[in-house]
Amino acid sequence: MTTTTPVTSESTCTKKCLDIHAIKQYLPHRYPLLLVDRVLDWESGKTITAIKNVTVNEEFFNGHFPHKPVMPGVLMIEAMAQTAAILSFLTMDIKPDENSVVYFVGIDNARFKRPVEPGDQLVMNVEILRVARGIWKYKAVGTVDGQTAVEAELMCTIRSATDASQPAGK
């Protein structure tokens, strides 16, 4: 892993933010599983706010559900986990290399409060609760138009690909 400064698009950002090009430097995900479109603001070691623009063109809407398209809850959680991973890398002041793997290791208190539909903008607020023994714990809330759509406590760990087959506790 190498240490670098976050890439920002100053022409469109008035705060600390990351455009999609910078996000792709922090996450290995690509279409159709890259679920963070922009980071609006972040504070190292504390919080991050990011967005997912939900469009009817997304592949999962073909089957979930054709008569009433709704973003699957598991993808809302994944979008918040990706946002949390970005915050972790920004906090550590590193960018992952091709040997880095971020594992989603736990979820507690997940609640789905309203559907997320095409045309919605899912605003994800993630706060670091603690970091212990290589496990990061976050409080994540996703809102649409100021209403809570999803909330959960998430846990992730960062490993090298060579250690990826080992349990998190080793």
UniProtKB/TrEMBL annotation:
A Pfam family that the UniProt record links to this protein: FabA
Major location category of this protein: cytoplasm
GO CC annotation, single: membrane
Catalytic activity: a (3R)-hydroxyacyl-[ACP] = a (2E)-enoyl-[ACP] + H2O
Entry's Gene Ontology molecular function annotations: (3R)-hydroxyacyl-[acyl-carrier-protein] dehydratase activity
Active site: H64
EC code(s) of this entry: 4.2.1.59
Record keywords, A-Z: Cytoplasm, Lipid A biosynthesis, Lipid biosynthesis, Lipid metabolism, Lyase
Localization in the cell: Cytoplasm
Role: Involved in unsaturated fatty acids biosynthesis. Catalyzes the dehydration of short chain beta-hydroxyacyl-ACPs and long chain saturated and unsaturated beta-hydroxyacyl-ACPs.
UniProt similarity note: Belongs to the thioester dehydratase family. FabZ subfamily.
NCBIfam families, per the entry: fabZ (TIGR01750), PRK00006.1 (NF000582)
Record's protein name: 3-hydroxyacyl-[acyl-carrier-protein] dehydratase FabZ
Lineage: Bacteria, Pseudomonadati, Pseudomonadota, Betaproteobacteria, Burkholderiales
Gene: fabZ
